[in-house]
Amino acid sequence: CCLLLALALFVPWHAASRKCDLQGLWRNELGSNMTILAMNTAGTFSGFYHTVLAATNKQILESPLQGVQQHPGAKTHPTFGFTVQWQFSDSITAFVGQCFVDHRGKETLETTWLLREEVLSHKDTWKATRVGTSIFNRIK
């Protein structure tokens, strides 16, 4: 009885105290996939993003990403930012977010993004930037 109670109390605490690790394969709510490669000691990382949505007639290609995590290894729920240089369009997206681990140990990246596309003149700059949010769940 006491052993079961101790296990029941320990498992949620242990999962919730687990540090979030950005490295791995992630998928957002729309089905886009992101791979984050190993982070260096300064907190910088690279990877690849494959979106399933794009406002283009061109073939959607996997696109490189570059990012940084604030205080690598020191925080349980770290903040981070990265940019994606789209290989199939004249746009770039900047993401900022935070990594969370729930009481079951499930890791989630909650992000806000800005997408800036090229426009032909200064008078069209008003329509060049979009803002949104994405939530990524760990696949691997």
From TrEMBL:
GO cellular-component term (any): extracellular region
GO molecular function: biotin binding
Name of a matching Pfam family: Avidin
Keyword Manganese applies: no
Coiled-coil stretches: none
Highest taxon of the lineage: Eukaryota
Database matches in InterPro entries: Avidin, Avidin-like_sf, Avidin/str, Avidin/Streptavidin-rel
SS bond list: 20-99
Compartment(s) of residence: Secreted
Cleaved signal peptide residues: 1-17
Signal in keyword set: yes
Keywords assigned by UniProt, alphabetized: Biotin, Disulfide bond, Glycoprotein, Secreted, Signal
Family classification: Belongs to the avidin/streptavidin family.
Quaternary structure and partners: Homotetramer.
Annotated function: Forms a strong non-covalent specific complex with biotin.
Protein name: Avidin
Organism: Machaerirhynchus nigripectus
